[in-house]
Write a structure and sequence with these properties.
CATH superfamily of the largest domain in chain A: FAD/NAD(P)-binding domain
Distance between the termini of chain B: 46 Å
Strand content of chain A: 15-25%
CATH topology of the largest domain in chain A: FAD/NAD(P)-binding domain
Number of helices of chain A: 16
Number of strands of chain B: 16
Helix content of chain A: 25-40%
Largest interface: A-B, 49 and 55 residues
Number of domains of chain B: 2
CATH superfamily of the largest domain in chain B: Nucleotide-binding domain of ferredoxin-NADP reductase (FNR) module
Largest sheet of chain B: 7 strands, mixed
Order of helices and strands of chain B: EEHEEEEHEEHEHEEHEHEEEHEHH
Oligomer: heterodimer
Radius of gyration of chain A: 23 Å
Helix content of chain B: 25-40%
Number of helices of chain B: 9
Structural class of chain B: alpha/beta
Distance between the termini of chain A: 39 Å
Strand content of chain B: 25-35%
CATH class of the largest domain in chain B: Alpha Beta
CATH class of the largest domain in chain A: Alpha Beta
Structural class of chain A: alpha/beta
Bound molecules: flavin-adenine dinucleotide, iron/sulfur cluster, FE2/S2 (inorganic) cluster
Number of domains of chain A: 3
Radius of gyration of chain B: 19 Å
Shape of chain A: globular
CATH architecture of the largest domain in chain A: 3-Layer(bba) Sandwich
Chain lengths: 486, 304
């Protein structure tokens, strides 16, 4: 049969005029016929473990679940996924697939010969999402096989994707699993950061029910490092998994950051997405952007802030010091927010936030930049253009310029070795320098993706299970020199 | 913070077990949550989200009862979330979420003579600190200050513990006790007993600001609860950021008691006022729309 290089099925999006007025998910996913047709495009590469599977951080057996779908067995497909990834409905939505599985699909790139191919990748993400959603809304209860109780207790700190995944696989081994989080909800960044228009909260709620049904215990509202200490937990548990992320908001250190109307991305997103400020005053938590706002940054956090701000009905400016091409968000995402009315300012560097006499933001002073060659051969660097100062009139400013470590859980715990970014050092088994304590996710690599945290969580669960079974711990523990490659 | 009891034995769902109204807007609430009752140190707070739709509200821990697994807070119900708390919750009802104990414990040391000034709910906030400082061998004096008599709290509790002569009461409208605010309380104290070695303050930001001006000028050490806005109360969002000297401090995990002479109070005062208009709107919505609905629902349930 001829290879279908280009006729990829694209998911259906709500039209810009509709989606910019609602916090409902705007990507509607595949229809059942699109699903079946897209599965038909996979050519079932024999060496898929060097291709799509190698591009997926959790190593999903992609053609295997696609084959199940083609045979009309969604439950079987879901079970294939669960072996490597407990949350397909989530990853199917939020993975940057073009850089991961789909970027390694033979139709678009030959990973073995290392050369570009002429086609478009199989829509792996949308297929995966369909499988997860189908099980979720079918009402079918998939029985999770859980081994008999081992009598061992594990404490997991942080209910983001890393912690939840570790909890899932450790519980399956029969251990008693307790998950602690400071916030009143599970999900970590998936709850307070990623907006509901990209990840419907009903997905998170369903996953939480599944995990609770497996017997995993959640303790929400416990700030480790203040409410209890790691030492308290060390005394009571047989092993600990740290999964507290690296999510502290950040600003730039320019004048005017203490004015009213200045937000970190984390504050803004938490107010809107977790505390539901978009339902104010029914929800008591307010957010106040005024008529116009400026979002500073060029990554997916910036995109998320723009999506939320537009949905709040605010004129939204995006300000980034580099170009659209050199930003880390996807091109289509900029197209999407531009269609929704966002005003994009490329090569623009903020230098000061201007306030009025009452201490409220009234403008963002910027300079225009130009890209110049890096003499050392790195990527071109932005350089200010003299005399290009100008003011963008706004009532609020949102900083989406990256996150810092959040060391509250392990600060002052000298048994745990940290690196120069204040994240936790681990070896290749996700072991920290303290016997019985593991660490996963953003906390280890300083900030990556949901699926990377899931990959860590699964591997750490396996190593932690080995430790609980054998009690073995290396005598000469050594930190992995490149933790971001784990 | 090391606990004798295992962590797991202290975890439970938070529940209101007692509510006592002491003034038109002032309520003491007793909450069951063994983790807080056992682990709280003087100066720490809890963050209460009363219902799924409520805001997260920091509240100082006034007293603890580890045997019963309870702790108490003093709520001055002015804004949406505090009004929700006192209107919707009575004995036996579960709260949506309580996070804590939170914040850094107050640095209890031997300072010498200490004057603790509490404005409004701040009198409750200072209560466990006063006890701990006295236990640590300090000479402890208390000033309870309020806009009017309605905002005077814990007077008898303090008097019982420290004696009548150690406790003075001030109202800004001169309705009760001596006339004046937080600065008057400090000045009277200095005239009578000389400069204290430490002033501790808790209450609204504008009072903290006035008091800090006085302590700075006189060179008196000042540790003040900074009532900044808060959101995550776990060191993520930077909503609570406060300038202390030339440093940016996250009040939720480094405070709430900070070096009052170094705090940029002007900034705290104007930033805490940012949502003023929306808070009014939110309270009105609650009182006129949500509360009647919730009350009807509750009555129906009780009648069944
Ligand atoms: C706005 C935004 C959008 C993003 N969008 C995407 C996307 O589309 N796709 C993608 O793949 N990735 C995305 N990412 C990145 C991704 O969310 C993270 O890489 C991932 O969530 C990391 O997971 P984690 O389990 O390590 O930690 P987190 O998700 O950060 O969870 C950590 C948890 O630990 C808790 N915690 C922290 N300290 C303590 C403590 N002391 N005591 C108790 N609990 C504590 C926190 O409350 C939190 O719930 C995004 C990130 C942001 C900020
Ligand atoms: C660490 C910390 C601990 C805290 N502990 C406590 C506590 O133990 N008990 C407690 O009650 N609060 C406490 N608070 C304050 C509480 O969280 C609310 O912020 C507070 O109840 C609202 O008062 P506000 O001054 O911030 O007013 P806003 O939230 O700005 O005010 C809301 C409305 O109430 C009005 N208002 C507020 N106070 C008064 C007043 N005294 N007289 C007249 N009108 C008023 C304002 O004018 C405004 O309209 C604490 C805050 C922090 C940061
Ligand atoms: S988990 Fe993410 S990277 Fe892996 S196959 Fe699914 S969508 Fe692709
Ligand atoms: S690389 Fe692409 S075509 Fe090959 S098995 Fe994977 S998804 Fe199918
Ligand atoms: S309230 Fe979020 S960092 Fe302090």
């Amino acid at each position: 049969m001829a290879i279908r290089w280009l006729d990829r099925n694209e998911t259906c999006l709500l039209p810009p005029e509709v989606r910019k007025k609602t916090f409902k998910e705007y990507d509607l996913g595949y229809t059942i016929n699109q699903l079946l047709d897209e599965c038909d495009r996979c050519i079932f590469c024999r060496d898929y473990d060097k291709r799509c599977k190698a591009g997926c951080p959790v190593g999903n057996d992609i053609p295997v679940f696609i084959d199940h779908v083609e045979k009309g067995d969604l439950i079987g497909a879901y079970k294939v996924l669960l072996k490597t990834n407990p949350f397909p409905a989530i990853t199917g939505r939020v993975c940057p697939q073009e850089r991961l599985c789909e970027g390694s699909c033979i139709l678009t790139y030959d990973t073995v010969r290392k050369k570009k191919n002429k086609g478009l990748a199989v829509g792996i993400g949308a297929i995966e999402r369909f499988i997860g959603d189908a099980i979720r809304i079918s009402g079918i209860e998939i029985d999770e096989e859980i081994k008999p109780d081992t009598g061992k207790k594990v404490a997991i700190i942080g209910a983001g994707p890393g912690g939840l995944t570790a909890a899932y696989y450790l519980r399956k081994e029969g251990h008693e699993v307790h998950v602690f989080d400071a916030l009143p909800y599970i999900g970590g960044v998936m709850m307070y950061g990623i907006p509901p228009e990209r990840l419907d909260r009903s997905v998170l709620e369903w996953e939480e029910k599944r995990l609770r049904k497996m017997g995993i215990k959640f303790h929400l509202g416990v700030l480790v490092g203040r409410s209890i200490t790691l030492y308290d937990l060390y005394k009571d548990f047989d092993a600990i998994i740290l999964a507290t992320g690296s999510g502290r908001g950040k600003m730039m250190g320019i004048p005017g950051e203490d004015l009213n109307g200045v937000y970190t991305a984390i504050e803004f997103l938490t107010r809107v997405n977790m505390m539901k400020a978009y339902k104010f005053p029914e929800s008591a938590t307010p957010v106040k952007l005024g008529k116009r706002t400026a979002v500073i940054g060029g990554g997916f956090t910036a995109v998320d802030c723009v999506l939320d701000a537009i949905r709040l009905g605010v004129e939204t400016h995006l300000v980034y010091r580099r170009t659209r091409e050199t930003s880390s968000a996807r091109d289509v995402e900029w197209d999407h927010v531009a269609e929704e009315g966002a005003i994009l300012h490329w090569l623009t560097q903020p230098i000061e936030i201007i306030g009025d006499e009452n201490g409220n933001v009234k403008g963002l002073k910027c300079v225009k930049m130009q890209l110049v060659e890096d003499p050392n051969g790195g990527r071109p660097r932005p350089k200010p253009i003299e005399g290009s100062e100008h003011i963008i009139e706004v009532d609020s400013v949102i900083f989406a310029v990256g996150q810092d470590a959040n060391p509250t859980a392990y600060e002052g715990v000298k048994e745990i070795q940290t690196n120069k970014w204040n994240n936790v050092d681990v070896d290749d088994h996700f072991r920290t320098s303290w016997k019985g304590v593991f660490a996963v996710g953003d906390l280890v690599n300083g900030g990556d993706t949901v699926v990377r945290a899931i990959a860590h969580g699964r591997k750490a669960a396996q190593y932690c299970h080995e430790y609980l079974t054998t009690g073995e711990w290396p005598e000469n523990w050594e930190a992995h020199p490149k933790p971001w490659t784990l | 913070m090391a606990t004798e009891k295992s962590v797991l034995s202290l975890l439970d769902k938070p529940k209101v077990v007692g509510k006592k109204q002491v003034s038109p807007r002032g309520y003491f609430m007793e909450i069951y949550l063994p983790l807080v009752a056992n682990n709280a140190k003087p100066g720490q707070f809890v963050t209460i989200q009363a219902t799924e739709m409520s805001a997260r509200q920091p509240m100082q821990i006034v007293d603890t009862n580890p045997e019963k697994g309870t702790f108490s807070i003093l709520v001055e119900a002015y804004n949406r979330s505090t009004v929700e708390l006192v209107e919707l919750f009575s004995e036996g009802e579960e709260l949506f979420n309580v996070e804590g104990p939170n914040g850094k414990p107050f640095p209890v040391e031997k300072y010498g003579t200490v004057l603790l000034i509490g404005h409004g709910w701040g009198a409750g906030a200072n209560y466990p600190i006063a006890k701990a400082l006295a236990d640590a061998g300090n000479e402890v004096y208390i000033a309870i200050v309020g806009g009017s008599r309605e905002n005077i709290y814990c007077e008898s509790e303090y008097k019982q513990l420290f004696g009548e002569d150690k406790v003075s009461v001030y109202t800004e409208d001169d309705e009760y006790g001596k006339e004046g605010g937080v600065v008057q309380a400090l000045e009277d104290f200095i005239n009578e007993k000389g400069q204290p070695d430490l002033v501790v303050f808790a209450g609204g930001a504008s009072h903290g600001e006035m008091l800090a001006e006085a302590t700075k000028e006189k060179g008196i050490k000042n540790l003040s609860l900074v009532p900044s806005l808060m959101l995550c109360t776990s060191g993520l969002c930077l909503t609570c950021r406060v300038k202390v000297g030339d440093k940016m401090v996250m009040n939720c995990i480094e405070g709430p008691y900070l070096d009052g002479n170094q705090v940029d109070w002007k900034n705290v005062t104007f930033r805490t006022g940012y949502y003023w208009d929306l808070e009014k709107e939110s309270l009105e919505y609650f009182l006129n729309k949500l509360l009647p609905k919730l009350k009807r629902k509750k009555e129906k349930k009780q009648n069944q």
